Each structure stands twice: as C-alpha cells, then as structure tokens.
C-alpha cells in the first residue's frame, strides 16, 4: 500500500522556527513521498480537527510537525474517529519541533529531516497505550486523551507559566526558568488520590504525575519506571515537599533518581482519580486543559507510531 501522508504543522511551535523548518524540508519530503499533503494549523484545537478530517478522507499516515501539544492534538484527532470508520490502520509520524519534545525523548526518536525520511521508509511501528482523561473546565466536564504524561499541581502551574513566558527562552532552559518562577510561590494543596478505587494518598501535595512515558519538562525523567507499551499507568507523587526539597530533587529527577526521597512515591494502576477542595490545574502533554476533579483511565485504544 502506498503511503498516503497528511502532514499537520504547528507554525508557532519552537518559537516560530517550525514554520521555517517546514518550508525548508517540504521539497525533500515531496521528492520521497509524492502523495504528501499538508496544512498549517491556525489556532488551538485545529490540529485535532484537521487530523480527524484527514483520517476520514482515507489518509493512512498522519505526520505531526511540532511539540508535545501538537502531537496530543493530532493523536486526539486520530482517536476521535471511530475505529469502524477507518479503512486502514492509521499510523502517526512525529517530526519533533517543540520546546520539550518529551514524547519523542521517551520513544528515543532521532531528530532531523533525514532521520524522519528514513523512519517513514522503514515503517517500523510501535503501539503505545492511550489514556482517557476527564477534567473540569469553566463550562463543563470534558474528556480528552493523552499519550505521554498528565499532571496536577505545581508541575501544571509550571507548564502554564511556560506558555506565558517569552518565546526567546528555548528548550530545557525555558522549563528551568519557569520552574524557578513558580517554585517559591507555589503552595501545596490538600488532595485525595485514588488508584483503582482505593485511597493511596490524602494530604498536602506538590505534584501528581500520571505517566505513560518517562519524561516531562524538557527532559526531566519524572517517571523512570513508566513504559509507553506497558498495560498500566505510573502514578508518581511529590507529596508535601518544601521548595528547597523540590530544588534538591529536581537535580535528581533529571537522572530519574528522585524516587528514593521519602516524600516521593511511585505505584501502578489502571484508573486514577484526583480530587481537591481548591481546584488544581490539569496539564496533558504540556497543554493546560482544565482543573480537578480529574480522572485518568487506561484506554483500550492503541496509537500506532513510527519509530527508529
């Protein structure tokens, strides 16, 4: 079967560099894959709409060009289409261009155009799990999938700050600056967390991470025990840690050795519920989507991704 590829590009990702990179890459991609079509997204949520429409039109490969947020939107667009309406299995291709690109890091994808072309030609597929998240917004309760990491608490507050910061800040450095901006003013909140129906934590919490992949925050190995293909979710809790303890553990978290701290825990479950009297911001794959009460449930649907 010919590769019928539809590319969805977020021109504002990577501080606007993605648009220039795409323009420079297009002809070489067209030479290798003549049936390539593409469209630039113009607003938040549009990549989801474009992806769903492309799948319904019969495209069997969807190329996401951007960061983790773009990949999340494209993945949701693919998953939005009911499986019985899809003529052929749809495969996601990632051309990582974001500030963090943490899903690509978990997948160990090589960066660069030549590696992308080689990856598409090789057609090696990895099936990863998807997670259905339910959360509150100002108007209603909403549902959305994520594929790498969700978190509530200070981690989500950092993601929100990152989105507000200057575009001149890049990569892991941008995340580090956002962490330092939030760290000393963030107050831990009282929460109740259930895993598979059982209360696993009640008390003050800094951050709750629901992980499929290992990395967030531009390379922080927050969930070293997580696995994208494993049939459960990794719940990592940074409990009532102080700002100074958080700084100490941040250094360890880049190596994935922070789980040794007495106020950090890790467990596995298929269904995780987080509630709090004071709403906590919820972040999915780097995007702020709503607040608690939130539920994260392992989905039966898999996402097929081309890997190196």
TrEMBL record:
What Gene3D superfamilies does its record include? 2.60.200.40, Probable inorganic polyphosphate/atp-NAD kinase, domain 1
Keyword Lyase in record:
no
- InterPro entries reported for this sequence: ATP-NAD_kinase_N, Diacylglycerol/lipid_kinase, Diacylglycerol_kinase_cat_dom, Lipid_Phosphate_FormReg, NAD/diacylglycerol_kinase_sf, YegS/DAGK_C
Q: Which NCBIfam families match?
A: YegS/Rv2252/BmrU family lipid kinase
One BP term from GO? phospholipid biosynthetic process
Kindly list the cofactors needed.
Mg(2+)
Domain DAGKc span(s) in chain numbering:
1-137
Matches recorded under SMART domains = DAGKc
Keywords per UniProt? ATP-binding, Kinase, Lipid biosynthesis, Lipid metabolism, Magnesium, Metal-binding, Nucleotide-binding, Phospholipid biosynthesis, Phospholipid metabolism, Transferase
Q: Which GO terms describe its cellular component?
A: plasma membrane
Provide the family line.
Belongs to the diacylglycerol/lipid kinase family.
- Keyword match Metal-binding: yes
Signal sequence, start to end:
none
What name is this protein filed under?
Lipid kinase, YegS/Rv2252/BmrU family
MF terms from GO for this chain are:
ATP binding; kinase activity; metal ion binding
């Amino acid at each position: 079967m010919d590769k019928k590829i539809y590319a969805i590009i977020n021109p504002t990702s990577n501080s606007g560099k993605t648009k220039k990179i795409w323009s420079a890459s297009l002809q070489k991609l067209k030479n290798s894959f003549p049936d390539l079509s593409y469209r630039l997204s113009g607003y938040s949520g549009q990549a989801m709409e474009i992806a769903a429409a492309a799948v319904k039109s019969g495209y069997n490969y969807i190329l996401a060009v951007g960061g983790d947020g773009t990949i999340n939107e494209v993945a949701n667009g693919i998953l939005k289409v009911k499986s019985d309406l899809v003529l052929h299995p749809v495969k996601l291709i990632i051309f990582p261009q974001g500030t963090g690109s943490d899903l690509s890091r978990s997948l160990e994808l090589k960066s660069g155009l030549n590696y992308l072309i080689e990856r598409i030609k090789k057609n090696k597929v990895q099936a990863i799990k998807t997670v259905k998240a339910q959360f509150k917004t100002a108007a209603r309760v909403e549902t959305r999938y994520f594929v790498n990491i969700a978190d509530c608490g200070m981690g989500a507050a950092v993601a929100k700050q990152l989105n507000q910061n200057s575009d001149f800040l890049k990569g892991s450095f941008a995340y580090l600056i956002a962490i330092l901006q939030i760290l000393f003013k963030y107050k831990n909140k009282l929460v109740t967390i259930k895993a598979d129906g059982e209360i696993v934590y009640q008390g003050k919490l800094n951050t709750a991470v629901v992980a499929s992949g290992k990395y967030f925050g531009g390379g922080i190995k927050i969930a070293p025990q997580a696995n994208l293909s494993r049939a459960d979710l990794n719940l990592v809790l940074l409990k009532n840690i102080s700002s100074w303890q958080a700084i100490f553990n941040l250094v360890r978290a880049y190596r994935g050795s922070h789980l040794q701290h007495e106020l950090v825990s890790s467990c596995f479950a298929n269904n995780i519920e987080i509630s709090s009297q004071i709403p906590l911001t919820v972040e999915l794959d780097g995007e702020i989507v709503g607040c608690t009460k939130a539920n994260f449930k392992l989905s039966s649907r898999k996402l097929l991704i081309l890997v190196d």
